[in-house]
Amino acid sequence: MDSTVLEYFQRVATQWDTLRSNYYDETVIVKTLDHAPLSKSQTVVDVGTGTGFMAAGLAPLARRVIGVDFSDAMLAVARENMARFELSNVEFRRGDLGRLPLDDATADVVVANMALHHAPDPARALREMARVCRPGGRVVITDALRHPFEWFKTELADVWLGFTHEEIENWFGGAGLSSRRYELIGKR
Predict the structure, then answer these.
(1) 121-130: pLDDT as tens digits
(2) How far apart are CA 36 and CA 115, in angstroms?
(3) Is the pLDDT of residue 142 over 60?
(4) Domains and CATH numbers, the chain
């Protein structure tokens, strides 16, 4: 991960839950569940978990949630959030999108909410998500569509200004993932 991205998330960790609410809300959890319904027998990996927003939303419906993030400060806030929400089936690991600290076929569902645009190599990140997903499992990405707002790079440490459907389609195919479906959600 780019050191600028890491420095940004280390700096904003305690304010992240407020900042992110300007860009997305609980709708992404509901829509994620539309694409990957959960059962109490399933393990979920939340890639780029940040403060654990998605992990907290999915934990009551899963057996286990493993959140992965590269920022120690974000993980500290995530652990505090899980304690506050009394969610004991969530664990966190420090790791990079391009090299997840998980064994092959660990998860039934892998999610990445607003994380891919911070990855130096999104295609590699998707291959890693596919690697840790069990055969027949699901990988669900919620991220920004391509946009012209260059200031996101300096203000929000975005590496990419969103993605086109074709880019995502190619990366999913390159990772061996099939049955792709798209839906536009988010704040306007």
Answers:
(1) 999 999 999 9
(2) 18
(3) yes
(4) 3-174 (3.40.50.150)
